[in-house]
Design a protein that fits this description.
Elements (H helix, E strand, L loop, with lengths): L8 E5 L10 H11 L3 E6 L2 H13 L4 E5 L5 H15 L4 E4 L14 H11 L1 H17 L2 E6 L13 H21 L4 E8 L7 H4 L7 H10 L9 H12 L10 E4 L12
Parallel strand pairs: 1-2, 1-4, 2-3, 4-5, 5-6, 6-7
GO molecular function, one term: oxidoreductase activity
Family: Belongs to the short-chain dehydrogenases/reductases (SDR) family.
Pfam families: adh_short_C2
Length: 267
C-alpha cells in the first residue's frame, strides 16, 4: 500500500454492491482506503454499506457505513452533516449511484424516465449541493463522478434515459469544475466502458440468452479483448482524487479498453 490519500476523508455514495463480487462503488471505497483515506461508505442498502466498511476494516483501514437515499435531499444532507460532525471535513466526494433503465422513448413511461434522471444525475446534484459548502470553506476538495461510455457513445443497448442522464452527468461535472475552480475544488468524471460487475448480471443480462453469451459479446466490443474490472475504474478514481491530479479538472475520462476510440464494432 502507498499513501496517496493519506489523512483524506472520502465520502462514497453507492459504496455497496448489488450482488456478490466487486461493484464500481465498492471497489472505489476499498481503493481509497488502501491509499490512506478514511472512507464513509454510503448506500441505500444498509447491509451493502456495512459489507464494504467491514472489508476495509478487515484490512486494517478506517471506514464507517451510512445509509442514505440519493433521491432525497434531506437524507443526503443528513449523511454529509454526520460526516462533518464526526471528521470535521470532506476531502473527496465520490458519486457512484446509477441505474440503467431499459427502453426507448416509445417503451418508457414518464415515471421511469424521471426516475432514471433523478437517480443518475439528480444524485450528483444533491450530493454536490450538500458537500460543496464544506469544501468551499476549506478552499479544497475533489469530486469524482462515475458517468459511463454511454454518455458519448451508443453502446448497443436500448437505454434512452440512461444515455440522456449520463450525458448530463458529464456536463454537470464540467459545470462544477468551472464554477468552483476559484474555490480550489476540482471535479472530474470517469466513463467506464464494458466493466464486469455484479450489476450487469441484473440489469443487462436480459438482453442476451445467457450470461455466457453476454460476457463473450461484451468482451468482443473491447479493443483490448476483454471487459475491465471494477478496480480499473477505482484506480482511475484514486488518481483523480489524489494530489497527483491537482492540475486536472473538468475531465471526462474513458476507462474502456479503447472502445471509445473505435468506430468498428468488436475491433
Amino acid at each position: 500500500m502507498t499513501e496517496r490519500l493519506k489523512d483524506k476523508i472520502a465520502i462514497v455514495f453507492g459504496a455497496g454492491s448489488s450482488g456478490p463480487g466487486w461493484s464500481n462503488g465498492k471497489a472505489a471505497a476499498v481503493a481509497y482506503a488502501r491509499q490512506g483515506a478514511t472512507v464513509v461508505c454510503i448506500d441505500l442498502q444498509e447491509k451493502a454499506a456495512e459489507e464494504t466498511a467491514a472489508i476495509i476494516a478487515s484490512e486494517g483501514f478506517s471506514a464507517i457505513a451510512v445509509t442514505s437515499d440519493v433521491t432525497n435531499s434531506a437524507s443526503v444532507t443528513e449523511a454529509v452533516d454526520s460526516t462533518i460532525k464526526r471528521y470535521g471535513r470532506i476531502d473527496i466526494l465520490h458519486n457512484n449511484v446509477g441505474v440503467a433503465t431499459s427502453g426507448g422513448p416509445e417503451e418508457l413511461d414518464d415515471e421511469k424516465f424521471r426516475i432514471s434522471l433523478d437517480i443518475n444525475v439528480g444524485s450528483v446534484f444533491r450530493t454536490a449541493k450538500a458537500v460543496l459548502p464544506h469544501m468551499k470553506a476549506r478552499k479544497s476538495g475533489a469530486i469524482v463522478n462515475i458517468s459511463s461510455l454511454a454518455a458519448i457513445r451508443w453502446t448497443g443497448y436500448p437505454y434512452f434515459a440512461y444515455y440522456a442522464a449520463k450525458g448530463a452527468v458529464n456536463q454537470a461535472t464540467v459545470a462544477l469544475a468551472m464554477q468552483y475552480a476559484p474555490h480550489g475544488i476540482r471535479a472530474n468524471c470517469i466513463m467506464p466502458g464494458m466493466i464486469d460487475t455484479p450489476l450487469i448480471y441484473k440489469q443487462i443480462s436480459g438482453n442476451y440468452t445467457s450470461n455466457e453469451e453476454m460476457v463473450a459479446a461484451r468482451n468482443r466490443l473491447v479493443p483490448l479483448g476483454q471487459m475491465g474490472t471494477a478496480f480499473d475504474v477505482a484506480n482511475a478514481a484514486v488518481f483523480l482524487a489524489s494530489d497527483e491530479a491537482k492540475f486536472i479538472t473538468g475531465v471526462c475520462l474513458p476507462v474502456d479498453g479503447g472502445q471509445s476510440c473505435s468506430a468498428v464494432v468488436g475491433a
